[in-house]
Amino acid sequence: MKKMSEDSNSAILDSISSVTEGCRLPVLMNNGDDWPLAEIISIKDSDSKKQFYVHYIDYNKRLDEWVEEDRLDTRKIQYPRRDLASAATTGLNTPKKTLTGATNSRPSSPGLTPDPITGPSVLAALQQKQQKNRKRKLDHSESKSPPAQEEEVRRPSIGSSIGSSIGGLGDIEIPPLLTQQQSLPRQTGSLATHSDDHAITRIKNMKMIELGKYRIKPWYFSPYPQEITNLDCIYICEFCLKYRKSRKCLERHLQKCPFKHPPGNEIYRKGSVSFFELDGRKNKLYAQNLCLLAKLFLDHKTLYYDTDPFLFYVMTEYDARGYHIVGYFSKEKESSEDYNVACILTLPPYQRKGYGKLLIEFSYELSKFEGKTGSPEKPLSDLGLLSYRSYWKQTILEILIALKPQEGQEKPQLTINEICEQTSIKKEDVISTLTNLELINYYRGQYILTLNKDLVDSHKKIMEKRKIRIDSKYLHWTPKDWAKRGKW
Ligand code: ACO
Ligand code: ZN
Q1: How far away, in angstroms, is 174 Cα from ligand 1 center?
Q2: Ligand 1 test: best mutation among 352, 455, 461, 463, most atoms within 8 Å of CB?
Q3: Whose CA is nearest to atom 27 of ligand 1?
């Protein structure tokens, strides 16, 4: 039986065999009564039952999952129109941003789209190309080789095995950002912006990881070696981040593992919170394993193995068993775009407890020590955007509320540049925050900021709850000028 609805793309079908990859239909969401529209990404037969990997169109990919046919509403199936398939706007058929136009002081990663180059940038582009070729030669073996692990597991490669998990959070509403730049993705890095849209990397490949005392469901694909992605769980040493295929193997590893904290220098300690700074060149294996782990929770980044241009700041919580990793951020040694964070992550068991803001606060504290303003690398993830907006808002309000009028002045005065200097937040982000808060008014020829009592009161309440803060007295760090050093 086949009936056409008003929409020529829709058809009512009585058979599950008509469901193909790329088509869209309502799917019952896990733990809910909702039937949002979803796209079929992949189909597999397991135990004589068909399973469908679905992406809910208006939801984050964290919620993608394997479902059985009883959760598909085949009556409302929509087939991809061949002429529209490549121009789809919401689903995973949509190609990720292509990498064009971004100029970078550093050479591009192999395999990424080169920039269109015209006019005065030709010389710079030529130099960049020469540098690129030189670097490619140097990095050739390394950029292709995943971290070498001892004994039990073989080298990681882009794995294709299929695992299911629902380790996600609910969908979040994000208010429009007024001056969020449409900046172009960076071209190199440990976790560069997506360059491929390969079907394999769209599907979560890991069922579970065990890290210290936590079992965590991954959110996204990460290129761990295929032979371990088939397992129900992989076991990661929480101190050196090496991965093992069984708890027994991990126990054997732990007997030999000399570490109780991340490598590198402990540059901050207050109470039980510490930060370790490590160099992606000197601590390559750790940095690569950190990127593999981070990729499980970062969707909009593709993993590369060249960690040399980055520093990593790993935040830990101390107890009698050691320094347990809570989260981290990476930072380019030299950023031509003034990025002070490349990737940032709080591991899921620690999320929504204020650690993300602590990582962000720390990144700005480093920028203050450098005497620079900075901004996170774009694009931001949904959760990254929420966290940054909240941090910017709180930091700027803190300054505005504390401001006192100078002698002889009726009202306190402050320039945008002064806010930037005091916070190290980049000007665009300060302006977007003030605009989003609708604080800027134009009055009698000048801009004035008006804070209403409700905003001040709610800010004070929020800040009382924000207990853990970075205290610059405890930061023992001198910035390095990587440009002068000539090498990373
Ligand atoms: N839903 C709604 N709001 C959330 C959520 C969520 N799931 N998670 C965090 N937030 C909000 C919090 O409410 C808080 O805002 P508020 O204080 O105004 O209420 C703000 O975000 C920060 O919360 P924290 O507890 O300080 O942050 P957390 O430890 O959860 O870490 C982070 C935030 C790092 C973004 C975390 O969610 C994460 O690691 N996500 C996965 C990786 C990722 O997306 N990283 C950012 C990529 S962008 C880049 O790398 C430059
Ligand atoms: Zn170890």
Answers
A1: 12
A2: 352
A3: 356
Q: pLDDT tens string for the chain (488 positions)?
A: 334 444 444 444 456 788 999 999 999 998 778 999 999 999 998 777 899 999 999 999 999 999 999 999 999 999 987 655 444 443 333 333 222 222 233 333 322 223 222 223 322 332 343 344 444 433 333 333 344 454 433 332 222 222 222 222 233 332 222 222 323 333 334 465 544 456 788 899 999 999 999 999 999 999 999 999 989 999 999 999 999 999 999 999 999 999 999 999 999 999 999 999 999 999 999 999 999 999 999 987 766 678 999 999 999 999 999 999 999 999 999 999 999 999 999 999 999 999 999 999 999 999 999 999 999 999 999 999 999 999 999 999 999 999 998 888 888 889 999 999 999 999 999 999 999 999 888 787 878 888 889 999 999 999 999 989 999 999 999 999 888 776 66
**Cα-to-chain-centroid distance, residue 181:** 17
Q: Look-up: residue for tokens 């071209």?
A: 187
Examine the residue annotation and report whether 377 is marked as an active-site residue of this protein. Answer: yes
Spatial separation of the C-alpha atoms in residues 28 and 32, rounded to whole Å: 7
* Side chain identity, residue 441: N
> Which phi and psi (to 5°) does residue 104 adopt?
-145, 145
Predicted TM-score (pTM) of the model is 0.78
- Which one-letter amino acid corresponds to residue 106? R
Helices vs strands, H then E, count in the chain? 12, 22
Name all residues whose Cβ lies below 6 A of ligand 1. Answer: 169, 172, 297-298, 341, 343-346, 351-357, 376-377, 380-381, 383-384, 386-387, 390
Beta strands in 77-206 (DSSP E): 77-78, 191-193
Tell me if the bond preceding 379 is cis, omega within 30° of 0.
yes
Angle at 136 between CA 135 and CA 142, to 5 degrees: 100
